[in-house]
Specification:
The chain is an alpha+beta fold. It has a single domain, classed as Elongation Factor Tu (Ef-tu), domain 3, CATH 2.40.30. The protein is 17% helix and 49% strand. It has three helices and seven strands. It is globular.
Amino acid sequence: MPIVIRFEASFHNFNVKGDGIVKLTFKVPSNEMPQVVQTVRAIDQRNVRIGTKCHKKLTDMGRVAFERLTFDRDGEATLAFMSNLDLDVSNLRDMVDEPVRVTVAIASPKLDAEEVIENGE
C-alpha cells in the first residue's frame, strides 16, 4: 500500500553540484511538523517521488531521496531532498515567494507513484 504525505511549504533553495546531484530545499512552518516528521520516518530505499502544487498547477518533479531535516528556534523546518538531473525543475520560478503544497509519494514497486501524485488532492 502506498504512503502519501502532503504538507504546506515554501520553496527555499535549489542547487546543482558538479557531480550532477540536485538539491531541492523547502521551508516548512511549525504547524506542519507532524507531516514532515512522518515523511522522514517513512522514506527509505523504496520508490519515492515528490510532487508540488502551486498556482493550481500540479507538477510531478520526479524521484528523490531524503537528504536532511533541520529545525530552527521558531520550530520552522528546512527539508532537503536530493536527486539526479532527471528532476523536473521547470516550475521553480513559479514557486518563489508562493505557498506550495508538497506531496511525497512513497509507493510499492507495483504502483506508479505518478498516479498517486496526479490523483492526489
